[in-house]
Amino acid sequence: MHDYYDEFDSTGTFRRELTPDEMLKLIFEYVAKISNEKQVDNLLVLMADLGRQLVVADRCTLWLLDDAKGELWTKVAHGIPPIRIPATAGIVGHAITDREPIILNDAYADPRFNQEVDRKTGYRTRNILALPIHNNDGEVIGAYQAINKMTEAAAFSPKDLEYIALAASYSGKALESAILYQEIEDTQREIIFTMSEVGESRSKETGNHVKRVAEYSRVLAQGIGLPDREVEILCLASPMHDIGKIGIPDAVLKKPGKLTEEEFEIMKTHASLGYEMLKNSRRPILRAAAIVAGEHHEKYNGRGYPHGTKGEEIHIYGRITAIADVFDALGSDRCYKSAWPLDRILNLFREERGQHFDPHLTDVFFDRLEEIVAIRDKFSDIFTKETAPEA
Ligand code: C2E
Ligand code: SIN
Ligand code: SIN
Ligand code: SIN
Ligand code: FE
Ligand code: FE
């Protein structure tokens, strides 16, 4: 990759700081690359490169925190496996633990520096700069680390720290969405695993029902102005609202007629069962799914289950999924009922505004009805494999 300062380095002696013009050009160049990059690994390489050139360091690494393993990991180049170190290791570990940047210009004089690494590699670390980086929620997600200033000063300055912080703020958002993207893939794998373990025979409502509920949830979440990330998360989580039905016996779940009171009590446990299944995950999507599973049968007037939670004490994800789920259930054939025509469904929604359903969300539902009906038609059950007419 083209280096801004290489051309001033022909004598092999000191490099010089970038001029403001060069710095601006460098940042523009990288902002373009970074915002087009969706792969976390590639972003790490790009951001490290940007940091290295900005502060005229010999090396620069962007470490990401893997909380579950208590490790930092990075990717230094394409085709080389990720490197992992304990999250508390070295100067960068201290910066993360203390949530403070560190500049060390005489590494060997600091007891926190582990000289072992240099002994192994033959490299001589003089200066280290480490800066924790945060996501939008203020949580530390990793750290920048720059090693050995290559100018005559041979020391990092507070100005360098500012430049690195600038690089982090330019690329932080791209990095976060790439991490989210990767997390979505990880989560989907996790879910598919869970579902396939249980077997797909349990519930007939999976296929298009979950797609519709996801899309209705998206429309409602956008309609009340939830932030994009939350809309995305809810959209991925809401299909799991009935995952607790996995724990309901067939005799109840698949009963063709009306449930007895006793059977309905059993049925109602699917909310808590789902919550219990999902509550221990640390992935935001599955955490959201736990909320949705636990609260999608709560009612705005406090007469729902499992807890009888009321009004805005019901999580917004629960209130949204309640509308999405009931709208879909009423419009579909079930083993115990036939699909209702749209006007009957809408009448019920008018009656249940402020009763079963959040009144504000009900208004959003009616405002966006056209969109919602379009989703219903697009993911209609009529042309599924089993029922599609022979060609
Ligand atoms: P589901 O079939 O996905 O229905 C979700 C929710 O949609 C229901 O939650 C209810 O709020 C609404 N809903 C569905 N069908 C009707 C209906 O015909 N009239 C009205 N007013 N609302 C309806 P709910 O009642 O808490 O039920 C939860 C789950 O329990 C249902 O999920 C279904 O799996 C099961 N279930 C409920 N009633 C019966 C029944 O009579 N027979 C059988 N076999 N299962 C039932
Ligand atoms: C990871 O665990 O690899 C990072 C994704 C996360 O934030 O959980
Ligand atoms: C990678 O995607 O390069 C590694 C991710 C990880 O190990 O957490
Ligand atoms: C549960 O505890 O079973 C559901 C979670 C909730 O409603 O808060
Ligand atoms: Fe349910
Ligand atoms: Fe459902």
**CATH homologous superfamily assignment of the largest domain:** GAF domain
The value of Rg in angstroms is: 27 Å
What's the overall geometry?
elongated
- CATH topology (level 3) name of the largest domain: Beta-Lactamase
The SSE order reads HHEEEHEHEEHHHHHHHHHH
Named CATH architecture of the largest domain = 2-Layer Sandwich
Structural class: alpha+beta
> Spans of 5+ residues with little confidence (pLDDT < 50)?
4-10, 196-202, 383-391
What amount of the residues lies in strands?
5-15%
Q: Tell me the count of domains.
A: 2
Looking across the biggest beta sheet, what order are the strands in?
Answer: 3-2-1-6-5-4
Strand count, sense and barrel status of the largest sheet are: 6 strands, antiparallel
Would you give an account of this structure?
The protein is built from 14 helices and six strands. It is of the alpha+beta class. The chain folds into two domains: 4-179, Beta-Lactamase (2-Layer Sandwich); 203-378, Hypothetical protein af1432 (Orthogonal Bundle), CATH 1.10.3210. The chain has helices spanning 20-35, 40-54, 90-98, 116-121, 158-198, 207-223, 228-237, 250-253, 261-278, 284-295, 316-330, 342-352, 359-367, 369-378, and strands at 57-66, 71-74, 83-86, 102-104, 128-134, 140-149. Residues 255, 258-259, 267, 297, 325-326, 329-330, 334-337 line the site of ligand C2E.
Secondary-structure map:
Blueprint (H helix, E strand, L loop, with lengths): L19 H16 L4 H15 L2 E10 L4 E4 L8 E4 L3 H9 L3 E3 L11 H6 L6 E7 L5 E10 L8 H41 L8 H17 L4 H10 L12 H4 L7 H18 L5 H12 L20 H15 L11 H11 L6 H9 L1 H10 L13
Helix pairs in contact: 1-2, 1-5, 2-5, 6-7, 6-11, 6-14, 7-10, 9-10, 10-11
Bound molecules: ligand C2E, succinic acid (3 copies) and fe (iii) ion (2 copies).
One fe (iii) ion binds next to loops.
